[in-house]
């Protein structure tokens, strides 16, 4: 979100109560793990993708809105066949994974239970029973190469991937409220690169919020211009 409380931007201004900046411009971005933004799409309602300059194929037009956005951001990558994409459950769906797989682009993401299809996995309700220990993992591979994983951590997490597998199993350290100590918890291998590569946009957001360009104007596009400056400064700044 690019913070903006003015009322001159019309429908471009959005409200999302879960964001630190609740009012502003909503951006969909593709960033690398080190915090560099490579492409972005400004949310504009039904005309969101028209201003991006990438025509949609018939296959993309048949996809859902969030899948279209990811597919468009992926289409501007210079080497999709050597790139792995990671996203959260707002974007992940079976149709997206199948599309990106056909484009030779690997993908891993958490997924909502209603977007994972109906694989023969233990249900979330069953996984969250106290009798099921933390670290329990259930998984299946589809005939077309999509891995579906359900893993019990602090909460039960569902993941889809065309990139990573379950083996070798590793472990993460979690606090146990019963023993009041930190204990190792078994986890599938697919969670390791997901956790390592999902922080790129968080880095950008934290830095641009902390070092925001001071600019007051009634013209809404000046706030967007200031954000571009902030992102450019972040790109030019050496990582520490």
UniProtKB/TrEMBL annotation:
Residues 2-232 form the PiggyBac transposable element-derived protein domain. GO terms for molecular function: sequence-specific DNA binding. This is PiggyBac transposable element-derived protein domain-containing protein.
């Amino acid at each position: 979100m690019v913070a903006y409380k003015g009322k001159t931007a019309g429908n471009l201004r959005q409200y999302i109560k879960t964001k630190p900046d609740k009012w502003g411009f909503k951006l969909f971005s593709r960033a690398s793990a080190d915090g560099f933004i490579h492409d972005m799409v400004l949310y504009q309602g039904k005309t969101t993708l028209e201003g991006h300059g990438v025509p949609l194929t018939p296959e993309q037009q048949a996809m859902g809105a969030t899948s279209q956005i990811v597919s468009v951001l992926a289409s501007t990558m210079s080497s999709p066949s050597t790139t792995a994409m990671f996203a959260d459950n707002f974007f992940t769906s079976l149709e997206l994974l199948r599309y990106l797989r056909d484009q030779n682009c690997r993908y891993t993401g958490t997924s909502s239970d209603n977007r994972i299809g109906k694989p023969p996995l233990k249900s979330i309700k069953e996984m969250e029973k106290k009798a099921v220990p933390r670290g329990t993992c259930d998984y299946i591979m589809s005939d077309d190469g999509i891995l579906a994983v359900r893993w019990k951590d602090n909460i039960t997490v569902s993941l889809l991937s065309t990139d990573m597998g379950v083996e070798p199993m590793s472990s993460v350290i979690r606090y146990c409220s019963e023993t009041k100590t930190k204990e190792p918890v078994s986890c599938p291998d697919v969670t390791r690169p997901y956790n390592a590569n999902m922080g790129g946009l968080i880095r950008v957001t934290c830095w641009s919020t902390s070092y925001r360009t001071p600019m007051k104007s009634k013209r809404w596009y000046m706030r967007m211009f200031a954000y571009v400056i902030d992102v450019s400064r972040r790109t030019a700044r050496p990582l520490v």
